[in-house]
Design a protein that fits this description.
The chain is α+β, with helices and mostly antiparallel strands. Helix content is 30%, strand content 28%. Strands 2, 3, 4, 10, 11, 12, 13, 14 and 15 form a 9-stranded mixed β-sheet that branches. Helix 1 crosses helix 7 and helix 1 packs across helix 8.
């Protein structure tokens, strides 16, 4: 999702700065978002309305968009500007840009070492050595471990597991125009996906870097919230998976220099990686190239990895 009101102030600034690039590339499409409140969640609902800058709407309006909203739903607020990001198109476009500039995209090679040399670095991967003037640590959940290879100071990144189920759309329903449904306090969400629904409890469980697996209890929690909000029989998931979302201690991204020359950070994307990607990339390119960043100075400072070093 591309949601400008999701995340803290530096994240929101990066997201706003990313919109123009995504619009120019044609990788955004209308989706919208509904905050769904159940009985007894009134106080937390109003808090979320304020923090996410949402517009309360009538239940009649909400059911005109999502006809199967259950009677247990007592309040709904919306954001009509939240959009889907075509993530595959974004990745393919980035790879094409790299190759057009003479670069290579190499996958399946595990980095096992980083050592400094005069004017740059050597990277070891699968018994092959690659040299570079500049190295960017953009290894997600493994970013701190990669910093260890180089002898750089760690940022204190924490990978957090999230479990997701893909379930069939309610019988007879075309969910393609449904907004994303978000539970109060981000306790769960459900999002249309290629004719089905993605459902999650939105948990944040600390986990070590590695292949993440869905947690059965969290899958059940997400399905229970979804079932309370939608008048439709719950069905067995078509697929389940887990993923890691890695955060810095203050939940802002870390974009900028490490404590070692020629070694840079682009890490701590958390749950905001795609929505902030164009502006994050531009900021990193500006800093490495010695150009003045287009972002405001206070935002650049809030993203500087030096705040943890």
């Amino acid at each position: 999702m591309f949601e400008e009101n999701y995340g803290n102030a530096p994240v929101r600034a990066l997201t706003r700065a990313s919109r123009a690039a995504y619009e120019a590339a044609g990788t955004l499409s209308d989706r919208g978002l509904f905050l769904v409140g159940l009985e007894g969640q009134e106080t937390a609902f109003h808090r979320d309305v304020g923090s996410l800058d949402l517009e309360p709407v009538s239940l009649d309006h909400a059911r005109s968009r999502v006809p199967l909203l259950s009677d247990r739903v007592t309040r709904v607020a919306q954001n009509t500007t939240a959009q889907d990001v075509d993530t595959d198109a974004v990745l393919q476009r980035a790879a094409k840009t790299i190759r057009a500039a003479g670069g290579k995209v190499q996958t399946g090679r595990r980095v096992t070492g980083l050592s400094s040399m005069v004017g740059g670095w050597y990277a070891s991967a699968d018994q092959q050595i690659t040299s570079a003037r500049t190295v960017v640590i953009a290894a997600g959940a493994w970013a701190d471990d990669v910093a260890d290879f180089a002898g750089a100071a760690r940022l204190g990144l924490q990978p957090l597991r999230r479990s997701v189920a893909r379930v069939a759309a309610p019988a007879g329903q075309d969910v393609s125009t449904w907004p994303m449904l978000l539970g109060v306090g981000e306790a769960w969400y459900a999002k249309p996906d290629a004719g089905a629904m993605l459902v999650s409890s939105a948990e944040e469980a600390p986990a070590p870097p590695g292949d993440a697996f869905a947690d059965d209890l969290e899958l059940a929690r997400g399905m229970d919230f979804y079932g309370q909000s939608i008048n439709a029989p719950l069905t067995r998931p078509m697929a389940t998976w887990g993923g890691l979302r890695s955060f810095t201690p203050d939940r802002s991204l870390a974009i900028g220099p490490s404590d070692l020359p020629g070694l840079w950070w682009c890490a701590g994307q958390g749950g905001y990686g795609f929505q902030t990607a164009p502006a994050a990339a531009q900021l990193l390119a500006d800093l490495i190239s010695g150009r003045s960043p287009k972002l405001e100075a206070d935002v650049v400072a809030a993203l500087d990895p030096g705040r943890f070093l």
